[in-house]
Amino acid sequence: xxxxxxxxxxxxxxxxxxxxxxxxxxxxxxxxxxxxxxxxxxxxxxxxxxxxxxxxxxxxxxxxxxxxxxxxxxxxxxxxxxxxxxxxxxxxxxxxxxxxxxxxxxxxxxxxxxxxxxxxxxxxxxxxxxxxxxxxxxxxxxxxxxxxxxxxxxxxxxxxxxxxxxxxxxxxxxxxxxxxxxxxxxxxxxxxxxxxxxxxxxxxxxxxxxxxxxxxxxxxxxxxxxxxxxxxxxxxxxxxxxxxxxxxxxxxxxxxxxxxxxxxxxxxxxxxxxxxxxxxxxxxxxxxxxxxxxxxxxxxxxxxxxxxxxxxxxxxxxxxxxxxxxxxxxxxxxxxxxxxxxxxxxxxxxxxxxxxxxxxxxxxxxxxxxxxxxxxxxxxxxxxxxxxxxxxxxxxxxxxxxxxxxxxxxxxxxxxxxxxxxxx
Amino acid sequence: xxxxxxxxxxxxxxxxxxxxxxxxxxxxxxxxxxxxxxxxxxxxxxxxxxxxxxxxxxxxxxxxxxxxxxxxxxxxxxxxxxxxxxxxxxxxxxxxxxxxxxxxxxxxxxxxxxxxxxxxxxxxxxxxxxxxxxxxxxxxxxxxxxxxxxxxxxxxxxxxxxxxxxxxxxxxxxxxxxxxxxxxxxxxxxxxxxxxxx
Amino acid sequence: xxxxxxxxxxxxxxxxxxxxxxxxxxxxxxxxxxxxxxxxxxxxxxxxxxxxxxxxxxxxxxxxxxxxxxxxxxxxxxxxxxxxxxxxxxxxxxxxxxxxxxxxxxxxxxxxxxxxxxxxxxxxxxxxxxxxxxxxxxxxxxxxxxxxxxxxxxxxxxxxxxxxxxxxxxxxxxxxxxxxxxxxxxxxxxxxxxxxxxxxxxxxxxxxxxxxxxxxxxxxxxxxxxxxxxxxxxxxxxxxxxxxxxxxxxxxxxxxxxxxxxxxxxxxxxxxxxxxxxxxxxxxxxxxxxxxxxxxxxxxxxxxxxxxxxxxxxxxxxxxxx
Lengths: 424, 198, 322
What we know:
The complex is a heterotrimer of chains A (424), B (198) and C (322). By secondary structure, chain A is of the alpha/beta class. Chain A has a single domain (54-366), classed as TIM Barrel, CATH 3.20.20.140. Chain A is built from 14 helices and 17 strands. Chain A has helices at residues 74-83, 102-115, 138-144, 159-168, 183-186, 195-200, 208-224, 236-247, 258-262, 284-296, 311-314, 331-340, 347-354, 356-361; strands at 13-21, 26-35, 38-44, 51-54, 56-61, 86-91, 120-122, 149-150, 176-178, 191-192, 204-205, 228-230, 252-256, 301-302, 377-387, 406-416, 419-423. In chain A, the strands form four sheets. In chain A, strands 3-2-1-4-15-16-17 form a seven-stranded mixed sheet. Chain A is globular. Chain B has 198 residues and is an alpha/beta fold. Chain B has helices spanning 18-35, 50-65, 123-133, 178-181; strands at 13-16, 41-46, 71-74, 111-119, 140-148, 160-164, 172-176, 185-189. With 322 residues, chain C is an alpha/beta fold. Chain C is built from ten helices and nine strands. Chain C has helices spanning 22-39, 63-75, 96-104, 120-127, 143-157, 175-186, 244-251, 278-281, 288-308, 313-321, and strands at 53-58, 79-84, 110-115, 131-137, 164-168, 190-194, 210-212, 223-226, 263-265. In chain C, the strands form two sheets. In chain C, strands 7-6-5-8-9 form a five-stranded parallel sheet, with helices on one face. In chain C, strands 2-1-3-4 form a four-stranded parallel sheet, sandwiched between helices. The interface between A and C is medium-sized, with 23 and 28 residues.
């Protein structure tokens, strides 16, 4: 698979500050020199400056291209990623048309070569049109550069089809990224089924709708001995299923979103459609289980599931609004403010799960701070305080779950693949 | 009508004591007897203190003439022009408690005498006239007040006045009656919030 | 046009029972009682809201609630305007937001909203400067119904504190049930929800009520409140109960199930013979007609209260930070 973006000269620059690279055990004041995009020199330096960490990797981003460029384009989506400290992202194929053929994938990759600011990989669909009944030409898609396969947006409803996809997909060596949801149980549901939904009268669906599918999919993955990636885990029952599978040595990785780590279903009492997403925000004990799984590494990836939506689609009553919230530009700050500062998850863990974890899960090169490596760096101001406002986004859409909130911690500079792609 | 602060303020001055109040009411009753056809008269007190005053006048009139005019009570809250919230700001006055409105007789052909404790801007009386006319069409409406403190904002004039007490706008008249406050007196309270409406 | 996300001047709405404190409820019921006196006079109109405009925006069929709100506004001398979902640009696909903005241009003082989607009145409140009254949003809330039910109970029984009310039927889909349970709790009364397990949402007891699937649980209630079997809110083919016949057999309010001294209430319209036996509906124990009369004065009181009582300072601050 390949990541593509607008190629340019690698930049030459110098950074100095407290460098934290958890996967490499680095935490000290250093001076990093980059020439033509490659780290050429690392020397001791002052730790008084900003924080410098390996840049982030997001394996779950909806770029809405082709088809909904009113919501996001390759240019705006990757600019948003750059502003969030990301040096690589993987795009989800539930577009219009769906990325289910080499022709669509190829043209998308070509466009990215001209428009993407940050290296971008494209997942292809598991089934044609994501309709769940026919496999895509997985081998050809892999050859054309697909990063992985997913029907995200929806589950692969038929166990038989998923099994076949796993088995046939072994030709590609690429993982399947799975959206786990049992539609028969989730139908009519807009939020998590619990005391909040009972009180508000909103259509709701239980955690079991996710976990029952997680168990099924992990069982099939084990049966076919294929690596899978479980997307946007939201329920404690799903975490339990992951742990059991890991104990049995199933090859599985998993991701969780910043909003699931920070919020619970209490947030939907405001009836703000910017808090409506799928899977929904769940209860406090689910959140606790997700945080614990993140700490222990059962969930090794943080992924934003950045899902832009046109303003007129979200400016409607809650039940009428589509699912999805943006997140690229606020991910680090939200996690720093709500997990690191209160001491829930150490900063090193968050940095690792934002960067090395996702890279490893999808076979991407892990951003490393070492001489000879391409520079993939995020410079962070941990003291900055800023307010999330509509006019502050580089994303085309403003459906953020943090609108109006004040956050601590900010990305001030991003070097992706040796080029400075963002400077505040 | 006054907005009352219970208890006596340190700088309150007694303008009328219990005896003076009784004399004033006596005078009003006497004038009512002299100037009206009593069998066509009704007394309607304005909540809150106008109501016990109306009952007292009825008794006083009966003592002098043998005729006891019927008595009614009017709460004018829903006819006021100053209670609304405008643009999210606080209303001009606290939302007052709504009390009983009872006019258990037909108004046709009657001389209705509205009774209140204090006459001030005239706005309460205007609202009372509006409220009264919801009940029917009296032949005429007159006004009896215990105290007239001046500063009219509408062309309203009393027909019977117990006592004229000129005041400053920043002063407040506080009428206390045995039926409500356990004592009869009229106090002048100086300075402070302009919160009296009459 | 001002950014609708900039907090508007603080103003009160009645979007949910949760917007009210116990003091608010008692004050509104007290005002309703005072207004009730006007109903018996020949001149039934009061000039209180003269010069004010009340717009009724109804996206759901509802003759009774719309008529109640219209008459309430007119009796207080307000100017009224009613926009119904049939025959207006709503059917041409205009979004709720655009309809709200159009209405806002007329600067109404109050907008009363009934809509099949939860949160619709909240959206209208965001895009206008009016006071908004929720006349029913999906399965969420119907606060004026809860208030008029409290009023009717208080008029009939002389008290609210300590009352036990059994609410029977399709609780899952009922905004009336949700609002009433909360309102009863607010005034020191308690409630028991009774119905088939599939029509009682899991977790609803978090509202502080008892739950039972046995109709006998209504025996010691002071008031039996029957909910309409909401057929139209169930998706086609969803069958929450195997048949209406079985529902009526298990949960119908029949004369045998009502003991002497119990009152029976229903938010209307009734499905006679399904959730309520016609003999019970027509008996002296049924307060249904009183509920209609209560609806008028309570809605008059709500309109009056919204326009004359400013928001409490703490709420003003909270709204500004939101």
